[in-house]
Amino acid sequence: MLEEKEFDFKFMIRRSKCNQCSASICTIALIPILGFLFSRGKCRKCHEPIPFTYFYNELLLSIIFILPILVYIQFRDFNLYYLLMIFLVPLAIYDAIYFKIPNFLLSVLLITGLYLTNFNYINLFDDLVIILLIHFIYYLFQNQIGYGDIKLLCVLTLITPTLMFSFIVLLSYIVGGFYVIIVELIKTTNYRKLPYVPFIVTSTILTFISYDDLTTIYFGGFL
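C-alpha cells predicted for Prepilin signal peptidase PulO-like enzyme (Type II secretory pathway) (223 residues):
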C-alpha cells in the first residue's frame, strides 16, 4: 500500500524499499502474509514497525481470492472479479485511512479493465447517461460525496455490465445504511465522514455471488 504522498511512477519499477530507511526488502519478506510474519512486523534493518494495514490488506485479499472456491460465483467472469478485487481492496483500505482515492490507481484500473474485458462491457449510451447522472448527483450533494468516489464509479461503469453496475451501487447504499445503523447503536460520538469504497467492495462481492438471483428479482421474479 502507498503512503499519502505524491505518487512517483518510479515506484512501479524500482525494488521494494522500507518507507523509513529506504533499505531494499528481501524476496522472502515480499511474500504476502508470510513475509510480514517472517519479518515479525518490522523492517529487518531499521526495526521500524511495518504498518499493520499491509498485513490486513494481504490477508483480506487472500480470503477474497479463494472465495470462488468456497462459494459459487453466479457471474462467471473471473478475470473481472480478480481485477476488481486487486484494485478495490487496497483502495478501500486507503480510503478508510485517508478519505482519498489515488488518481493513478483509477487510471491503471480503467486501462487494465478495458484491456481485460476487451471493451465488451461498454455501452456508449448507457455509460454516458450514468456518468452524467453521477456528476449531476455530485453537483447536488458535493458536500456529502467525495469526487474520488465519483471518479471510481465512472471507471466501474465502463468496465462492468450496466446491470451489474446498477446492482453494485444499489447494494453499496444498502450495506452502507446497515453500517450506519450499527455504528449509531454502538457509538456515542458523532462522525462526519464515511469511506465509500469499503461499501463498494462489499457490494461488488455480493453482486458476483448473487448476480443471477438479483437479475431474476430485477425482472420481476420471486414476486
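The chain has eight helices and no strands.
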